[in-house]
Amino acid sequence: MSTTHDQVVGVVRAARDAAKSVARATTDQKNAALRAMADAIASRKGAILKANAQDVAEAKGAGLSNSLVDRLTLNDSRVAEMVRSVRAVIDLPDPVGEVMRTIERPNGLRIQKVRVPLGVLGIIYESRPNVTSECASLGLKSGNAVVLRGGSESFRSNEAIRDAIQEALAKTGLPAAAVGLIPVRDRVGVDVMLKLNDLIDVIIPRGGEALIRKISEESRIPVIKHAKGVCHVFVDRSADPDMAEAIVLNAKCQRPGTCNALETLLVHKEIAPVFLPRIVHALKNAGVEIRGDEQTRAVDSAVKPATEEDWSTEYLDLILSVKVVPEIGAAIEHISRYGSAHSDAIVTRDDGNAERFLAQVDSAAVYVNASTRFTDGFQFGLGAEVGISTERLHARGPMGLEELTTYKYVVHGAGQVRE
Predict the structure, then answer these.
(1) Residues 251 and 372 sit within 8 Å (Cβ to Cβ)
(2) Closest by alpha carbon to 181, among 158, 208, 148, 140?
(3) What is the tens place of the pLDDT at every residue in 159-193?
(4) Distance from C-alpha of 21 to C-alpha of 28, rounded to nearest angstrom
(5) Residue 206: which of 183, 229, 187, 185 has the closest Cα?
(6) Which positions ≥6 away from 9 have C-beta within 8 Å?
(7) Domains assigned to the chain
(8) How many Cβ atoms sit within 10 Å of the Cβ of residue 331?
(9) Which of 257, 246, 255, 238 is CA-nearest to residue 282?
């Protein structure tokens, strides 16, 4: 009987072998496979929903939170959205083979920098089974094989989606093993996976802070982290109050459970007497719990005192930390100290302050007079994404197709030798 180690290695090794075929596939071949993938998910909807219902029943029986159960749950509309998401990848430009730069040397050498697939992507994620089809489609279009490890609570759902994807790949002449799923539910599967640095080229974790920390500490494979989003909006002294209010409410309330939602509001002391009462009132009407510094608490007795921990907390809920700062430098310093290098914004009519903020805030996305909620692959015009990278190396921000490639140098000569 095979061990967990052998089962995991078997799936990953098969993906490694399949990666060669996917890397060589033409755009037409990959798009045909994606169309078949979308069709297969749609035609197997009944089996997918049946498997998901079992996962949901088990999750409820285990006492998982309502929010986690909601992220886990599939229905007709969510399966339809999965199908639309796969079809949307067909229309995205194929990055593989793109010539990024051409250099003509005096000795006649012609050097091209060309996009190529990364190879085998190991993607570890939690709860949402639609991530299975999203990452599979992006991996395929970018010429990579993908090894997926979803949360144990969505194991049956992911298996059903994997079966549909592999059926589509086989029908269109690509190896089914190009999209593999770790075949065990326990964490030992992840432990084995993270040691296979000779078979997996990069690990991309999507999930909570604890998951990402564990993977980063234990992986022998390079990790592109999608860490928490402690996002800020700084309302400068010259800000238009109407614009500032609209941006703050959108960034906090439009979808508070996302990594690009606002978690800390910073307000310049000169605009605070006018803007703070206004924004506190608007946030309270929107159902937001406010945790503020002394000046913010003086505005409304319902404002709770902010602790040191609050400034670095990703609430993912209708909770907001608010602080008054003496000037833009203090706002930048606060973001540098407590932020997570995800998405941060300034609201201002001062071009000099806008440029200073852009230059000195070192985050994956930095905004002037816009909501942080735009940090998203589709909103950036990049199409679907595997997540938002907060790393400095290889990829930052929304990770779409281009970020799932690397490059090589292709050199054309006519017999040149180095003197």
Answers:
(1) yes
(2) 148
(3) 999 999 999 999 999 999 999 999 999 899 999 99
(4) 14
(5) 229
(6) 192, 196, 199
(7) 4-226+399-412 (3.40.605.10), 231-379 (3.40.309.10)
(8) 26
(9) 246
DSSP for 79-123, written as a single string: HHHHHHHHHHHHTSPP-TT-EEEEEE-TTS-EEEEEEEE-SEEEE
Judge contact between 240 and 209, C-beta under 8 A. no
* pLDDT 10s digits, 264-293: 999 999 999 999 999 999 999 999 999 999
CA angle 147, 90, 409 (to 5 degrees): 70
d(CA 13, CA 145): 11
CA dihedral in degrees (171, 36, 138, 159; nearest 10)? -70
Cα-based angle 301, 303, 306 (whole degrees, multiple of 5):
130
Taking the CA atoms of residue 72, residue 74, residue 80 and residue 81 in that order, the dihedral angle to the nearest 10 degrees is -20
Q: Which two tokens stand for residue 145?
A: 């094989």
Angle between helices 351-360 and 328-338 (to 10 degrees): 20
